[in-house]
Amino acid sequence: MPETSDRKDDHIRIIEEEDVETSGTGFGDIDLVHEALPEIHRDEIDTSIEFLGHELAAPIVIESMTGGHPNTTKINRSLAGAAQDVGVAMGVGSQRAGLELEDDGVLESYTVVREAAPDAFLYGNVGAAQLLEYDVEAVERAVDMIEADAMAIHLNFLQEAVQPEGDVDARGCLEAIERVASALSVPVIVKETGNGISRSTAERLTDAGVDAIDVAGKGGTTWSGIESYRAAAVGARRQEQVGQLFRAWGVPTAVSTLESSAVHETVIASGGVRSGLDIAKAIALGASAGGLAKPFLSPAGQGQEAVVDTLETLLLELKTAMFVTGSATVEELQEAEYVVLGRTREYLEG
Hints:
Layout: H1 3-17, E1 30-32, E2 49-51, E3 54-56, E4 60-62, H2 73-86, E5 89-91, H3 96-100, H4 104-116, E6 122-127, H5 136-146, E7 150-155, H6 157-162, H7 173-183, E8 188-192, H8 199-207, E9 212-214, H9 223-233, H10 237-245, H11 253-261, E10 267-270, H12 276-284, E11 289-292, H13 294-302, H14 304-323, H15 330-333, E12 338-340, H16 342-349
Parallel strand pairs: 4-5, 4-11, 5-6, 6-7, 7-8, 8-9, 9-10, 10-11
Antiparallel strand pairs: 1-12, 2-3
Helix pairs in contact: 1-9, 2-4, 2-13, 2-14, 8-11, 9-10, 12-14, 13-14
Binding site for FMN: 64-66, 94, 125, 191, 221, 272-274, 293-294
Subcellular location: Cytoplasm
Subunit structure: Homooctamer. Dimer of tetramers.
């Protein structure tokens, strides 16, 4: 199996077996103000949102995780089936392997998502570095591969810097993103991969015409840490050390959400989001939706029902937060009062 595909299998194994979690999202410093007299019925709370021209039943995104190896097909089938059942959005992992390898097993790991979720909002995924090699037609092939409703372009240059085989040429990527955003047949989401997006970067992406920003901030799964484990396995000592040094690098998710939503109207808050309360806090900070990846991985290995169960727990947590802030709709939650404390406040003031 070629290198790109094998790497996808390595990533899933490391996430399942090793310590790849970091802290510091900033959500612990965000307090939503309690409403003692909400004057609404919890069971009548409306969690639906309009997202890039589609309606979702809840402001939840199953974040891009995997694809590109036959071993990941079951995971993507479970995730997509659950997205279909609950009415949330889902993204696939990088489609580079599907575009570059002529292998039916690799392709099925992606195409399975539309088969399992004929009506769900699904988005594809290519790397910003690959846009220097791909023209818009190639990105359209990634759209067609899963009949995508949108395309994510991921920014993962710290991860690439730690990979022994990483692509560390970041020149011209913003121009390439702008080119794709202006010509692609579906909306374009630009997403980080665990290190966050600053206000200035969000401004540049907004000016480039992207349709949504997924901040993927510091505080969740550390791809620097994952690549450090991979580097250790092949004896790449320097990359292993660099991966550990930058394990907790980045802009905290809460900060990135606030700063990005100040300049772009459609922001997904991800990176260490671990509960419906985190999603509620992110929406109060300005996000349109909250995204999670790792919390769905183990349930996806068990099957679709386990993923649905995880989603239903998140929904109950979110509805509870909405109830006790007096928010009958997601639009009202976006106006909920909150207080910023501690290091997050210092970060924003600094």
